[in-house]
TrEMBL record:
It comes from Neorhizobium petrolearium. This is ABC transporter ATP-binding protein. Pfam families: ABC_tran. PANTHER family: ABC TRANSPORTER ATP-BINDING PROTEIN. Residues 5-234 form the ABC transporter domain. Belongs to the ABC transporter superfamily. GO terms for molecular function: ATP binding. SUPFAM superfamilies: P-loop containing nucleoside triphosphate hydrolases. Keywords: ATP-binding, Nucleotide-binding, Transport. InterPro entries: AAA+_ATPase, ABC_transporter-like_ATP-bd, ABC_transporter-like_CS, ABC_transporter_ATP-binding, P-loop_NTPase.
Length: 308
């Protein structure tokens, strides 16, 4: 099956000479959740804006469900819902009217039952008659999502959807995103909250300096790039490591009371057993051990740092 979004050698340079995108290649599969991570100015918003038809590309091509985003703008825009970073709604309009109007803008017939369902899913039903200026920042963010869903898009872009939203509300939004995916909606989100990607994404893309550094299935990425650490609290401090332990990637704590062994993926399974056997042979005993696996945030920071 062809990808629902296909990006080929996409570039964008603004009038001031800033290269926002430098040859992006990316295929997005129908029904997946893709998280795009990157620091400010990395190119995330520019990429989304081009796909959504809000910004013209410099060169390259973007196809959405087989339609060129430049040549077939109306066809592609009808398939896409966008939740922008900025709150750009009429503060004196009611929630109900705002969301209903958004459906009409896309040429869809009125569907009060659908609007009601969307508002209830986003915990906005009790606020349907309130004006937007009466809502909290988190509620306004939900209204943006409701507007983006009003015309029943096949692809939903969420540009920093939970910025300024409290933890509980954020988790409720993740649940909404998961339900949308179950209904076949393809979701692409940009976020500074890396735990969002770790929680809900199928694949993770990392952008920095206008380049797509990688796109990987989340679990494969964690296995491939995630590092693991074994820490052994020693029964008696050591002043130095015996020569027999030189083969292992070991660090002795400054006070000599702990050994730290770092390894990657599954490579440590055999080495840990061998390490423990060598410690026993050297009559080195430990009173406690603990393990730690690097998070997606650790991987992201390392990647961006390497490519900076």
């Amino acid at each position: 099956m062809a990808p629902i979004v296909s990006i080929d050698r996409l570039t964008k340079t603004y009038g001031n000479g800033f290269e926002a995108l430098k040859g992006i290649d990316l295929d997005i599969e129908e029904g997946e959740i893709l998280a795009l991570l990157g620091p400010n100015g990395a190119g995330k918003t520019t990429l989304i804006s081009i796909i959504c038809g809000l910004v013209n590309p410099g060169s390259g091509k973007v196809m959405v469900a087989g339609h060129d985003v430049v040549k077939d703008f109306r066809a592609t825009r009808a398939l896409i819902g966008l939740v922008p970073q900025e709150l750009t709604t009429d503060m004196f309009e009611t929630v109900w009217n705002t969301v209903s109007f958004s459906r009409g803008v896309h040429g869809k017939k009125p569907d009060p039952a659908l609007i009601e369902s969307i508002l209830k899913d986003l915990s906005l039903w009790e606020k349907k008659d309130n004006t937007l200026r009466e809502l909290s920042g988190g509620m306004k963010r939900r209204v943006l999502i409701a507007k983006a869903l009003a015309h029943e898009p096949k692809i939903l872009f969420l540009d920093e959807p939970t910025a300024g939203v409290d933890v509980n509300l954020r988790r409720e939004m993740w649940q909404v995103v998961e339900r949308l995916r179950e209904n076949g909606v393809t979701i692409i989100l940009t976020t500074h909250y890396i735990e969002e990607a770790e929680e809900i994404a199928d694949r993770v893309g990392v952008i920095n300096g206008g380049r797509l550094l990688l796109v990987e299935e989340k679990r494969a990425l964690m296995q491939k790039l995630g590092r693991k650490q074994l820490r052994l609290e020693l029964s008696e401090p050591l002043t130095a490591l015996p020569d027999s332990l030189a083969l292992y990637n070991l660090t002795l704590a400054d006070d000599g009371t702990a050994l730290v062994h770092e390894y990657q993926g599954d490579e440590g399974q055999g080495s840990i057993a061998s390490l423990l056997a060598t410690l026993a042979a050297e009559d080195i005993h430990f009173r406690d051990l603990s393990t730690r696996q690097s998070s997606l945030e650790d991987i992201f920071v390392a990647l961006v740092g390497e490519k900076a």
